[in-house]
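Structure ticket #2291
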Amino acid sequence: MNSVVNHLEGWKIKALVFSIVIAIGGYLGFSLWGGWEEVVDAFIQIGWLGTLLALAMSLVNYGLRFVRWQLYLAKLNHPVRHLASLRIYLTGFALTTTPGKAGEAFRGILLKQRGVPFPASFAAFISERLSDLIAIILLTLFALTQYPDARGLVLVGVVGIALILGVLASKTLLSKIHNAASSRDGKIVTFIAYTSDMLMSARACHNPKLLLSATAISFIAWGAEALAFYWVLNWLGADISLSFAVFVYAISMLAGALSFMPGGLGGAEAAMVSLLVIKGMAMPTAIAATVFIRLATLWFAVAIGLFALIQSRHGEMSGGVDP
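Resolution: structure written out below.
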């Protein structure tokens, strides 16, 4: 197997470092703006037990999403052994916050070396993102009536889901797009042909039975992190209901996704703090809750991904079997 490190050289590793530095700077600025001492006090109030519980719910999220990933690979006729697939899946988390979803591309590179073609791995990735979006939209319905201003954002998500599912449902349309693009030269039409090929592969992941199963898995996975967010708010003394806490978490994830920023950085945090403050939460507490839950979800995933990446590198350098 070619060196794992080789695939991370150049702009990818620089983008990873840059994203981490920017995030650290942003969170520090956030905390200073809201009142550094109050934010630190809030973290102390959550405590080690609260931190471990939040991280445990994140692990539930990652574990369930991996189960869904395995279902997609099996449906695409490219199953990978669980342990090897888990390491590959987790390694992709290392680059979650880099531009262009480099982590997902890197995951495809590792799967390619195990006989999984790029169209299949990216079809699984597309199916994952669509399943996540459906689950997040469903979670926003918990308390959408309490904040009707968010209906437009939810509507955009619903329309996006409908369009993607509509395209996936039409084999004829995808074939026509692929044939038209394949008969012409140019980078854009080549990209269109490749994308249509991926969508053709992704069709297998969206039969009613698998779509329902994947949606249920996604709903529980993201619901686990939303529940952790509710606990954090309660530990900080916030008078916010479970339904509204789930809504805030879900709509923030949707805002981050629609911002097209890697990992939803900036968009998710801004939405979360704004909604908590509107609900009557003090700014320092809202910022502390937001920074904490993002560290316990997004950045915990990045840390796990980096660990999996280091383990892969160590195994390769020692002559062991790579994932």
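Closing remark: Residues 5-317 form one domain.
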